[in-house]
Amino acid sequence: MNDHHLFDFPTSEDIPVLSFMWQTCFGETQEDALFFLKNRFRPGETLILRNGAGMPVSMMTLIPARLNNVAGAYLYGVATHPDYRGQGLMHLLHREAVQYLASQGTRFTCLVPATHSLFSLYAELGYEVRFYRARREYYNLTPCPFIDLHIPSMVDFTAMRSEYLQRLPYRLRLLCPDYLYQELRHYGGDAVSFACPNDKTGYAAYTLSGSTLYLRECNVDFTPELGASLLAYTGCRQITVELPEPGYPIGMYRPLGTDPFPDDFTAYLSLCLDT
N or C: which end of the chain has fewer CB within 10 A? Predict the structure, then answer.
């Protein structure tokens, strides 16, 4: 490693530079960058690389996660200052992060590549595609008796989601449920709940883009009635439903040491701060 670079954990004084890197790397506004840094920033969960003057020039957030009941880390917000790109700093930071996480008893790391081209880059670092989603689109849903939709509390939403994930054979859960709910609403989405015929309560978590509603997660089977109700509720004209089944690749996985899972496992991943 270049002697002019130092691995470190950031402090609150580093937030302006981290915000700048976030904006330039992800094309987001200062408001969006500060939303994450003010609501989810944990100094001990973000690793940075400083230059010789002590300024952060590369960053990587290590969000605690569970794949089933196995402890792992979700790598998020990987960014490098524009003036320091092309120097292999991300590789150095990743190597340090993996060593640090392994020393803390973390069994795996996982991530969602920001672009399709990054899948091959992360494959070079030992990652394999293990997370998939399927997607179906619906247009012109026939009007029908609408379902009454309600806004659940964050506590109720988290409890319903936890029960839903327990039904799946392999599921990744980020250990920041409060922030997941906040982030969903910050980017114009929301979660609604509704009564089901079996006396259970269903929920639907969604985001919006133009006239399209993206149903990110739902704990019951999608029906035309639910779709029409969501469109009427939001004023959208079409709906794209994301499903926990084989489809397109979404995320990658790397064990740290002996792999605790079968070689061919695939897992469910949604609401992973990828809005």
Answer: N
Domain ranges of the chain: 6-106, 133-247
Task: Give the pLDDT score at 3.
Answer: 43
Alpha-carbon distance of 240 to 133, in angstroms, equals 12
CATH topology of domain 133-247: Aminopeptidase (3.40.630)
Longest Cα–Cα distance of the chain, Å, equals 67
Cα separation of 217 and 184, whole Å?
A: 11
Task: For residue 72, count other CB atoms closer than 10 A to its CB.
Answer: 27
Which candidate, 258, 260, 210, places its Cα nearest to that of 235?
210
Kindly list the distances between the CA atom of residue 274 and the CA atoms of 14, 59, 244, 250, 271, in Å, as whole numbers in the listed order: 24, 17, 16, 10, 7
Q: Residue 91 is encoded by which pair of tokens? A: 């590789």
Closest CA to 230 of 207, 216, 209, 213: 213
Cα 44 to its chain centre, rounded Å, is: 19
The CA-based dihedral angle spanning residues 171, 177, 182, 183, taken in that order and rounded to the nearest 10 degrees: -40
pLDDT in tens, 43-75: 889 999 999 999 999 999 999 999 999 999 999
CATH class of 6-106: alpha beta
Q: How far apart are CA 232 and CA 256, in angstroms?
A: 47
Q: Is the pTM of this model over 0.90?
A: yes
Residue pair 71/105 in contact by the 8 Å Cβ criterion? yes
Rounded distance between C-alpha atoms, residue 17 and residue 196, angstroms: 48
**Do 189 and 205 touch, CB atoms closer than 8 A?**
yes
